[in-house]
């Protein structure tokens, strides 16, 4: 069996989010998420902006070499930058609130996400693109988009107990990203499953005392990204 391609994992990640939000009515889209201050509709708007950014990036070829890859890209997004994070959170909330109904965001998402995947499928896998002041290889861009989608999928379902979790292949991409940020000198505790790892690596769940013992010095590196 041939390995799954980067645009296919992105498709699975975006389809997973669609599966969560498409059945929700306006009340369901106003349930809380793991992201402080954001309802489901607010977080979906944020992910929608990511899909729109993907479309722009994939239409913005750049000369190489890349200045970041799918792991080092995340080092610019530090968990300590509370001011920038709060400002973006407030902007996203106000932008999402501008829709007449929360389901309006779902309609735009279900148009935009597949378009981003189609653009990813036709992009040159050996090419480079620019986004957010960086140059990345196309596969690395798609890995960053997949990682963000998987983490936010987990954020979306915190108050939706019947919603499906992210699929295995995109989850594996996100886990690989966290492994890269953790470095080769440390390993995650054996008791963590992939989703717990992602939630703790991104600061969604706190480390327990046992986690800290098992991680040793590496516990001080958590959260690995914001």
Automatic annotation (TrEMBL):
Organism: Micromonospora sediminicola
Domain of life: Bacteria
Lineage: Bacteria, Bacillati, Actinomycetota, Actinomycetes, Micromonosporales
GO molecular function: isomerase activity; metal ion binding
Domain Mycothiol-dependent maleylpyruvate isomerase metal-binding: 11-156
Gene3D superfamilies cross-referenced by the UniProt entry: dinb family like domain (1.20.120.450)
Keywords: Isomerase, Pyruvate
Claim: Isomerase is one of the keywords in the record: yes
Pfam families xref list: MDMPI_N
InterPro entries named among the record's database cross-references: DinB/YfiT-like, MDMPI_metal-binding
The protein, known as: Mycothiol maleylpyruvate isomerase N-terminal domain-containing protein
Keyword Kinase (UniProt): no
